[in-house]
Amino acid sequence: xxxxxxxxxxxxxxxxxxxxxxxxxxxxxxxxxxxxxxxxxxxxxxxxxxxxxxxxxxxxxxxxxxxxxxxxxxxxxxxxxxxxxxxxxxxxxxxxxxxxxxxxxxxxxxxxxxxxxxxxxxxx
Length: 124
Known about the structure:
The protein is mostly beta strands. It has strands spanning 4-7, 10-13, 18-24, 33-39, 46-51, 58-60, 68-73, 78-83, 92-99, 113-114, 118-123. The protein has no helices and 11 strands. A hairpin with a 4-residue loop joins strand 7 and strand 8. The termini are far apart. The relative contact order is 0.31.
C-alpha cells in the first residue's frame, strides 16, 4: 500500500510559478513510476506529466511541455512538479499518482495509487 500526500497548490497570477510536491509512504517508492494528473471543473481527468522509476525518462502532455518539469527525489520518497508560465487554463485539482508499470503512461487507469489532490488556481 502506498499513500500519497500532495502540497504546494494555491492561487497565483497568470505568468507566475508554483511547485507541487508529493510525498509517498512506504519503502518501495523506487519501484513505482510516478506522475501528475489534473482535473478542471466540468472536464475529464487529464494527464500532465510522468517520470520513470529510475528518473531517466520523463513524459509531458503537449499542453504543459516546456513549462512544467517533473522530478523525483528517492532519498525523500518525493516527486515534484515545477510549473512555470502558468495560465488560467492550468487551473485544476492536481493529483499525484503512483503505478507499477513497465513504462510510464498517460492512461490514468494504469496508476494504482492516487493522492487527495491539491488545488491550483491561476488568475488572469
